[in-house]
């Protein structure tokens, strides 16, 4: 099983994460807190109350974890394609796999990375939702002092299953949309690359960016439910499950609730995934 895709996925995931984390923090707050009037209000209040560091809350953990998750995603994707088509990453330029096989490989990678991602994503969302300023006074101490303390508190207060709260919504969010992610990327690369050649940097950037946008637009409804389920265990249980969360969110806030954060997801998706795919492609070419 070639390991270069796993290593390239790890490094490219870290590059994308740092670029996109501030967008992600604002998105998570808009999805789970009703105190903000919109994106600008959230950005201004976060900066005023917590300085620029407020946008990077909850990032230390994902740097290792999402990079690992990206490693699983790209590694499983590429090795599933190897199993389905008996072609390596480089051979696929000359023998392009079918979009069905690309979709299957992307869904397989999406399903497996979701299980790796679940506990890390839960901790990230819990930390991102702590709005106390850094230089807090005793009365407004945040509940969690950091990712490790957050994990230990969840284990103590909610049990091991607490670390997987929202994981079903995460699996449903990521599995089909990561199939689409890779189909979009490969389709755009083929569209703008002469047969049998490697795509140019510009093609990789544009294809990666639009693959990220397409994937996040379709993932946003389950992204909202996932974030709400992850916050649910904090102050007792508000939802009886994922379907109850969907139904009560719709009842209280209307259909628009399922598109909360879509603008931010899309704005973040282009640079993050353009950088992710560019670094992935170049790391693989360096490796050969
Ligand atoms: C499947 N879903 C849409 C959630 C993510 C797809 C892109 C994943 C990428 N690492 C990023 O952070 O944007």
Secondary structure: elements and pairs:
Blueprint: H1 4-32, H2 39-50, H3 60-85, H4 91-94, H5 99-128, H6 147-158, H7 167-191, H8 201-232, H9 242-253, H10 262-287
Bound molecules: N-trimethyllysine.
Straight-line distance between termini = 15 Å
Indicate the overall shape.
globular
Average per-residue pLDDT, rounded, comes to 89
* SSE topology string: HHHHHHHHHH
Q: What level of helicity do the residues show?
A: over 70%
Per DSSP E runs of 2 or more residues, the count of β-strands stands at 0
The radius of gyration computed from the alpha-carbon positions, rounded to a whole number of angstroms, is 19 Å
Bound molecules: N-trimethyllysine
Strand content: under 5%
Q: How can the largest sheet be summarized? A: none
Number of helices: 10
Poorly predicted tracts of residues: none
Structural class: mainly alpha
Protein name: Solute carrier family 25 member 45
Membrane topology: Multi-pass membrane protein
Keywords: Membrane, Mitochondrion, Mitochondrion inner membrane, Repeat, Transmembrane, Transmembrane helix, Transport
Subcellular location: Mitochondrion inner membrane
């Amino acid at each position: 099983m070639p390991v270069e895709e796993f290593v390239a996925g790890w490094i490219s995931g870290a590059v994308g994460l740092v670029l996109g984390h501030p967008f992600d923090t604002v998105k998570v707050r808009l999805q789970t807190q009703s105190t903000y009037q919109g994106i600008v209000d959230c950005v201004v209040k976060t900066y005023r109350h917590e300085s620029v560091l407020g946008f990077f809350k909850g990032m230390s953990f994902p740097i290792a974890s999402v990079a690992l998750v990206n490693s699983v995603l790209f590694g499983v994707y590429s090795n599933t394609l190897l199993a389905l088509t008996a072609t390596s990453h480089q051979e696929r330029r000359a023998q392009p796999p079918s979009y069905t096989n690309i979709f299957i490989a992307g869904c397989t990678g999406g399903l497996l990375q979701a299980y790796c991602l679940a506990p890390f994503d839960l901790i990230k969302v819990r930390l991102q939702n702590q709005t106390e300023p850094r230089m807090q006074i005793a009365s407004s101490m945040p509940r969690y002092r950091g990712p490790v303390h957050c994990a230990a508190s969840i284990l103590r207060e909610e049990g091991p299953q607490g670390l997987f709260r929202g994981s079903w919504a995460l699996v449903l969010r990521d599995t089909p949309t990561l199939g689409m992610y890779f189909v979009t990327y490969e389709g755009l690369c083929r569209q703008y690359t002469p047969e049998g050649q490697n795509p140019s940097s510009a093609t990789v950037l544009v294809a990666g960016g639009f693959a990220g946008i397409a994937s996040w637009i379709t993932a946003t409804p389950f992204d909202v439910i996932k974030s709400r389920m992850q916050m649910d265990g904090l102050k007792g249980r508000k939802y009886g499950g994922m379907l109850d969360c969907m139904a009560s969110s719709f009842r209280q806030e209307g259909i628009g609730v399922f598109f909360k954060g879509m603008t931010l997801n899309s704005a973040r998706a282009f640079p993050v995934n353009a950088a992710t795919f560019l670094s992935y492609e170049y790391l693989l070419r360096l490796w050969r």
